[in-house]
Design brief:
about 110 residues; mainly alpha; 4 helices; about 60% helix
Length: about 110
């Protein structure tokens, strides 16, 4: 029940956010963690279907990306630094350090 009622709905929401807002990502490439998240969610769909059919030993062949939380935390931090710079509120070490922490999009 945990997987079908709690975990998979949260996974589905995360994958939907990635797919619907990929245009907002900084950079020209989709990060491997995000690709792995979406692939994991789709693999879990297959696993859940197999469980319904009685294959209770079935498991996902694509693991959840363990580094996703760090990736999101770093990205959020860069975004907040960039926001502070744009608002003229950046109180960091230097503008150069801020530029390093918050790279500009090449798109």
């Amino acid at each position: 029940i945990w997987m079908t009622q709690v975990l998979q709905p949260l996974n589905e929401k995360a994958a939907t956010i990635v797919m619907q807002h990929v245009d907002l990502l900084d950079g020209a490439m989709l990060e491997p963690q995000l690709l792995q998240l979406v692939a994991h969610v789709y693999a879990c769909r297959v696993t859940l279907e197999r469980w319904k059919q009685g294959e209770v030993s079935a498991g996902s062949v694509i693991s959840y990306p363990d580094s996703l939380a760090d990736f999101i935390k770093k990205g959020f931090t860069k975004l907040k630094v960039r926001q502070a710079i744009l608002l003229g509120q950046y109180k960091g070490r230097s503008q150069k350090a801020a530029d390093t922490a918050a790279p500009r999009s090449k798109l």
